[in-house]
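Please decode residue identities from the backbone states below.
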């Protein structure tokens, strides 16, 4: 047994805290925010993440608060189908992704971590390969330091030096909407340099996301007005969903990713999730990979093995989703690779 210091109280950090706690380790989670919160958006979890959540003992709780994704494929801006997925075949072969609100997922994970282990309002200044973390309340030392502090990770500096995120070429909007009329068909609509996605949430609300290929830091005075300008003439139910959106609930972020790191570990430090391999949300694998990372890291550390084994496994998985995200299914549809590294 040992002690794990987890820097970051997001999805990946809490998953790591659960993974180490279940193996009998002492855990200390350092989170700079005054409380653990999630942005007001939905999240899809593919079967690799669901399997990892089962290993963490929270899979059933997450399923209970989620619904299967009914995303059926891709449309043109007039509503014509460009490509349809074989939902039944995908369910039989892999299992379908599940969708829930990020805040609900974070609450389930937080509840599985001992309350005494979570320290909020703590700013981390640096981490050292010997397991020391310097922060606003002094120092903490652990057998493993988990860098789960996101794309702008402080912990990453001890592993890879200063690595600047790279703009991926597009900005993204997200908003959760309560529709005035039921929505029955989900998926993505593709335009020229733009796309609009619709996913159902368990309480009949709709999670909408949209992207546009624009210069970085494009000034937008009113995000909802910009969405209406770009997507208000697209097929139903997109105009109605935007009309029902609360302007204050619209989130917008320029999408960034990390260049590949040579390693995710340095002695007692291990990076996971966005701190290690921040990727674009195209495949919905960012949080999924973070949860997988947490399970693998705890397993390797608890077995007393060198963290370079975690590095080897996590690097291979991140490389797969960055560069080889799809393989052909029997009917020619694009199906994500079957996950392998979190089987119980």
């Amino acid at each position: 047994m040992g002690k794990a210091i987890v820097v970051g109280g997001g999805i990946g950090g809490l998953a790591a805290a659960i993974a180490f706690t279940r193996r009998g380790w002492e855990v200390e989670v350092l989170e700079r925010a005054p409380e653990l919160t999630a942005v007001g958006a939905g999240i899809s979890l593919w079967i690799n993440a669901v399997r990892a959540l089962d290993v963490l003992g929270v899979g059933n709780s997450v399923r209970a608060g989620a619904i299967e994704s009914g995303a059926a494929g891709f449309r043109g801006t007039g509503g014509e189908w460009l490509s349809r997925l074989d939902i039944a075949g995908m369910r039989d072969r892999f299992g379908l992704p599940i969708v829930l609100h990020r805040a609900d997922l974070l609450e389930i994970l937080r509840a599985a971590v001992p309350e005494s282990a979570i320290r909020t309002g703590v700013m981390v200044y640096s981490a050292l390969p010997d397991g020391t973390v310097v922060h606003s309340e002094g120092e903490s030392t652990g057998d493993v330091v988990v860098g789960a502090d996101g794309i702008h990770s402080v912990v990453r500096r001890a592993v890879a030096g200063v690595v600047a995120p790279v703009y991926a070429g597009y900005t993204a909007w997200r908003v959760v909407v309560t529709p005035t009329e039921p929505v029955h068909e989900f998926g993505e609509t593709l335009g020229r340099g733009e796309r609009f996605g619709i996913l159902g949430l368990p309480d009949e609300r709709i999670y909408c996301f949209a992207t546009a290929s624009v210069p970085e830091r494009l000034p937008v005075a009113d995000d909802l007005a910009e969405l209406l300008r770009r997507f208000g003439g697209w097929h139903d139910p997109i105009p109605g969903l935007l009309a029902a959106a609360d302007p204050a609930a619209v989130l917008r972020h320029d999408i960034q990713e990390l260049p590949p790191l040579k390693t995710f570990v340095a002695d007692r430090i291990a990076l996971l999730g966005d701190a290690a391999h921040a990727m674009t949300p195209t495949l919905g694998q960012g949080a999924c990979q973070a949860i997988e990372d947490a399970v693998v890291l705890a397993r390797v550390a608890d077995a007393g093995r060198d963290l370079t084994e975690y590095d080897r496994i996590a690097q291979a998985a991140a490389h797969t989703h960055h560069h080889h995200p799809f393989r052909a299914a029997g009917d020619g549809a694009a199906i994500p690779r079957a996950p392998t590294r979190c089987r119980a």
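Observation: Confidence is low (pLDDT under 50) at residues 323-344.
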